[in-house]
Design a protein that fits this description.
The two termini are about 25 Å apart. By secondary structure, the protein is mainly alpha-helical. The protein has ten helices and no strands. It has one domain. It is about 55% helix and about 0% strand.
Length: about 240
């Protein structure tokens, strides 16, 4: 769960490999990896979407399916025209972006048209990413009870973030949290964390659940994979 929702954060001596990335570093990483991943899928190097892969496919392990599913959801935000990513990471722009998202009528589309207004376009893109994950969850066979209310759940998180940013001194607290390698409720972190959570359920269904046996043949999972997967907070925790 997000650091800003905790009354007290207990930090381990060693962060997981998939741990903290500063906002600008996360954006730069996505700016490099999302286009490269989409190019690989366009060229047929990888089964797409990732949730359709089996263990015998290239990058068919649960960690990469988790990671690539998250990249598939993030592509919408990374494609917003104008590249005004400060709306997602600048403390003084968060209320503006949050208000725009909450004012946006939820949609169910994964093929979208942008409006030319940055706040509206980011709001549309965030919902498109959530809708993509709902689509992938259905393809992978995620329990419907676990995938229902995706948009509603995220809007509740954004509403809580809106209250956090409305308090005096929020920008200063944000800076303090970043200095401690903690995640304040920046819109980038809100969507990244939610996409990570939802993608994990999709990867679990694709590889660890019944869908992993699509060929009708027995599937032997690597030793110790399930407890490692359950303990992982990020796909990078599983990637050696």
């Amino acid at each position: 769960m997000f650091d800003w929702l905790q009354f007290k954060k207990v930090k381990s001596a060693k962060r997981p490999r998939g741990g903290f990335l500063a906002p600008q570093a996360l954006l730069e990483d996505l700016d490099e990896r999302v286009p490269r991943y989409l190019a690989d899928t366009d060229e047929g190097k990888l089964v797409y979407p990732a949730c359709k892969r089996t263990l015998s496919d290239l990058d068919g392990d649960v960690g990469r399916i988790w990671d690539h599913t998250r990249l598939e959801a993030m592509r919408y935000v990374m494609a917003v025209p104008g590249r005004k990513f400060e709306l997602l990471i600048d403390p003084v722009r968060q209320i503006e972006m949050i208000d725009a998202y909450l004012a946006q009528h939820p949609h169910a589309e994964t093929v979208i048209d942008f409006t030319g207004t940055a706040t509206a376009d980011f709001a549309i893109a965030i919902s498109a990413g959530l809708n993509w994950l709902t689509h992938c969850a259905q393809l992978a066979g995620v329990d419907p009870a676990r995938q229902s209310g995706t948009i509603r759940h995220f809007r509740k998180l954004v509403t809580l973030a809106q209250l956090w940013w409305s308090n005096d001194g929020a920008a200063e607290r944000c800076g303090e949290m970043l200095a401690r390698d903690e995640q304040p409720p920046l819109m980038l972190y809100l969507m990244w964390s939610e996409y990570t959570r939802l993608s994990k359920s999709i990867a679990a269904a694709a590889v660890l659940g019944p869908a992993s046996n699509r060929s009708g043949k027995p599937v032997a999972l690597p030793a110790g994979l399930i407890p490692r997967f359950e303990a992982a907070r990020d796909p990078n925790d599983l990637l050696d």
